[in-house]
Amino acid sequence: MERKKFLQSLIGTSALLTVPGSKYVEDAYALPEVIRDTNRSVTGSMIGYSDEPIEKVNVGIIGLGNRGSVLLEMFQWLVENDRAEIVALCDVQPKKVEAASSKLANWQTAKPTFYSDKPDDWKKLAQQDNVDLLLICTPWNMHTPMALFGMRNGKHVASEVPIGYSLEDLWNLVETAEETRRHCIMIENCCYNEEELFVLNMINNGVFGDITHTEGAYLHDLRDLMLSDTYYYDYWRLKEHVSRDGNFYTTHGLGPISFYLNIGRGDTFSHLTSMSSREMSLSEAAKDSTAPYKDFKCGDMNTTLIKTELGKTIMLQFDVHTGRPYSRINKVCGTKAVHDGYPSRLYIDDKKTELGHRWLPQELYDEYRQNYMHPIIKKLKTISQGFRQGHGGMDFVMIYRLITALNLGLPLDINVYDSAMWAAVTPMSELSVASKSVSLPFPDFTGGTWKTHDQLEINRVFKDA
Ligand SMILES: NC(=O)c1ccc[n+]([C@@H]2O[C@H](COP(=O)([O-])OP(=O)(O)OC[C@H]3O[C@@H](n4cnc5c(N)ncnc54)[C@H](O)[C@@H]3O)[C@@H](O)[C@H]2O)c1
After folding, report:
1. Contact 233, 239 (CB under 8 A)
2. Which atom of ligand 1 is nearest to the CA of 231?
3. Of 8, 10, 1, whose CA–CA distance to 432 is shortest?
4. What is the fold, at CATH topology level, of the domain defined by 191-375+417-459?
């Protein structure tokens, strides 16, 4: 029964209900079949989807903690230029709404509607007539229900990462976006970071030749923040580590890599295998803290390997327990060049007679960095000066791109299928870890359209906006 409940939490509550006997539940090698059984008949019709242009996008934000309050600030330029307005703010803690409201008053004269009486007040915000876009910045377990409810009430939705927990969540999101014709985007800010866009632009210009392998990660020592009694609302992030084990935070590494590899645009994820180390560092740190949780199932380091249909490989890591410098790795290996991040370094194969097997010297690296600066970054460097940028600039670029695409009625850079594919790695890694790293096939959330779609929307520069 325990294993059945575990499988249902990751695959979906309806999963396994119709399966006779216990074969699927007990046999790890039957898991691929269980995953294939989750397939729904989606059409891929939200790929490249454009909606009516919205001259000024009315935004409602749910969750005004660390993330919601930073993202709110990213709207200043857009509000001052009549591209967007914050029309509603919601948080279950009234003090968070008050703080956000006084911040907003510095640059927006119109007052938003506030919601902070009850835990489900966010539904009223999602039903507020003039809201065009819901921005969801709450703890992880609320993202899918909020996004589904938003779309069903006619709103476009943008959710913080990860957008869903189980494969069923992700299928529901894809199906609902297709049915309601509403955009549903998981806002992955690292896709918009200057270094990742520089690598993408080099890929677009053939610097790497044919790509064979990539590595990405979320390696961030979060022990102090997760164990703090004030940083996260009600220890929500720490609780995730108590009874789950896998890669919970896939997208900071995987989002940019998916763009490097044209995932959903001529290639797609084929299968994965995942393994976690034992847990040591978080429980050690918890001993000396006041946090009410002391034992954790999530291993210190999770390593997941993904293979794509065209034979490229991705190594993805997740570790928020170990004391170490921050890294997303950001490695790309191709037939002509290799990039490694943290710090950013470049190796160009045809310079090996001159340089041997060494990274480019700083002067030459700087030339590449200048020559291949992504056009989006070039353009936004001028308009974003003097405004708060968030995470070194990428948060502003992300919100600017989202709102401007809605203003112009253009497809978004990250569609609902990207969102589902990147988030699916979490439940699949948990299933694989719990089943001796058994290899699992990815569901095809695009309904086969990854074979024909070839536009990488993030490469477009909006000409006059
Ligand atoms: N992309 C990034 O760089 C980045 C950075 C930080 C956080 N995040 C993501 O942002 C999300 C929020 O993280 P955070 O650090 O801001 O957490 P947080 O705990 O600081 O904020 C969550 C907020 O949600 C509110 N909330 C809880 N239940 C609610 C309800 N029923 N209705 C309305 N509000 C409710 C809480 O009061 C709190 O203010 C997470 O998904 C996290 O992964 C992303």
Report:
1. no
2. 20
3. 10
4. Dihydrodipicolinate Reductase; domain 2 (3.30.360)
Domain ranges across the chain: 2-37, 57-188, 191-375+417-459
Radius of gyration of the chain (CA): 22
Q: Does ligand 1 come within 6 angstroms of the Cβ of 220?
A: no
160 CB less than 6 Å from ligand 1? yes
Tell the residue number behind the tokens 């102090």, with chain if given.
224
pLDDT at residue 409, rounded to an integer: 97
Q: Residue ranges of the chain with pLDDT lower than 70?
A: 1, 14-26, 464-465
Cα 399 to chain centroid, rounded: 14
pLDDT > 90: what percent of the chain?
86
- What does pTM read for this prediction? 0.96
Residue nearest to atom 2 of ligand 1 (CA): 189
pLDDT, position 245 = 97
Task: Report helix, strand or coil for 22.
Answer: coil
Q: What residue's CA is closest to ligand 1, atom 3?
A: 189
List the structure tokens of 189: 């800010």
Q: Ligand 1 centroid vs 281 CA: distance in angstroms?
A: 24
* C-beta of residue 349 within 8 angstroms of C-beta of residue 210: no
- Dihedral angle at the C-alpha atoms of 183, 189, 190, 194, nearest 10 degrees? 110
Tell how far the Cα of 439 is from the centroid of ligand 1, in angstroms. 33
CA of 188 from ligand 1 middle (Å) equals 14
Determine the Cα angle at 172 with ends 171 and 177, to 5°. 100
Looking at every residue in the chain, the average pLDDT score rounds to 94
- Homologous superfamily assigned to 57-188: NAD(P)-binding Rossmann-like Domain (3.40.50.720)
